[in-house]
Amino acid sequence: MRTIPALFGPYGGAAVEFLDRFERYGANALWFHGFDPAAFDACAQHGVAACVEFKTFRADFAARPELIPLGVDCQPIRYGRLVQGVCLSQQDFLEEITADLVAGLREFQPAGIWLDYLTHAGWFEVPDPDLQDSCFCAACVADFCTATGLDTTSPEEILRTAAKQWERHNCERIAVFAGQYADLIHAYLPDCVVGAYMCPWRPEEFDRALSRIFAQDYAMLAPAIDVFTPLIYCAKSGRGPGWGREFLEASAAFVPHDRPVQLILDAKDFPASLRETAASDHASRGLQVFDGAAIFRDSHLSAEFAAAVEQIQRQPSAGQ
Ligand SMILES: [Zn+2]
């Protein structure tokens, strides 16, 4: 099994200008969007681990309406300014994702690649999510029937009589893609860490929406995913600053024990959420900070971050 280094640092290319301060404040990694040549160069110059956030199932629905999943009424799902997830029967789009990944792997050697939007459709970074079952297009329903041996074309009947099979099938579908992407990554870069950004809800929350709506199942994903990264954006999600600590301490009940959890916190929630996370009995394996350039723009936050990194690394559970 790959050893998973404890990587600490900001998410966001804007932090490149602060790379010369990383070491002073305990940061050793930078996460950035896509295979960004300038970010790779800058990380190499400063001896910082370059980690890619790789977009999977997200697209501009205005430009690509064929990718919009269908709801139980066989109409395109409702969505607002932000939405993730696509109809997973759209082969051309799936081939584009694979081609983007292979193109990056041929040219760059990231320390890690975190798969983003590896979910069914919706948006979870809000206090009051609009949760919809999907995708009930003819091709996705046919795929379900082939996989389960059931014979139906009615979304309503599926949810009424076979909801568990539907949920399991969708989770398996997402997990199969995770496996394909992980295999591709390791074919080029055997030591590359494969992470996944996760819906940050515990399995029972919102009537089990983690698996029922977003089709993320930790146990099914674990063979492909080395480290799980829930998006702990407290203010955006209407949660208190202790959410990250609470997630870590609850995670042993649903995250396979040989798979570490590495939180991504939102700089907007600092320093309170950072202090709470650092105090967790169940240490985060490294730490990402969304809009992480903010850490380095404020000397108080820089010091807070450095102290949190030290505290996390001192935890007896930090190396497990
Ligand atoms: Zn579909």
Average pLDDT works out at 96
What are the low-pLDDT stretches, counting only 5+ consecutive residues below 50?
none
Shape: globular
Q: Which percent range describes the beta-strand content? A: 5-15%
Class based on secondary structure composition and strand pairing: alpha/beta
Total domains, how many?
1
Task: Give the neighbour order of strands across the main sheet.
Answer: 1-8-7-6-5-4-3-2
Tell me how many strands there are. Answer: 8
User: Main sheet?
Assistant: 8 strands, parallel
**CATH level-four homologous superfamily name:** Glycosidases
- The CATH first-level class comes to Alpha Beta
Specify the helix fraction band: 25-40%
CATH architecture: Alpha-Beta Barrel
Terminus-to-terminus distance = 13 Å
Total helices: the number is 12
Q: How would you spell out the order of helices and strands?
A: EEHEHEHHHEHHEHHEHEHH
- Radius of gyration (CA) equals 20 Å
Brief descriptors of the model:
alpha/beta, TIM Barrel, eight-stranded parallel beta sheet, 38% helix, 12% strand, globular, binds zinc ion
Can you walk through the features of this model?
- This protein has 320 residues and is an alpha/beta fold.
- It has twelve helices and eight strands.
- It has helices at residues 37-46, 91-107, 138-148, 155-161, 163-188, 205-212, 218-221, 234-237, 243-250, 272-278, 293-297, 299-314, and strands at residues 8-11, 29-33, 49-55, 112-116, 193-198, 227-232, 264-266, 287-290.
- Helix 2 (91-107) runs parallel beside helix 5, helix 9 (243-250) packs parallel to helix 10 (272-278) and helix 10 (272-278) packs parallel to helix 12.
- The model has no long low-confidence stretch (mean pLDDT 96).
- Zinc ion is lined by residues 69, 87, 89, 135, 137, 139-140.
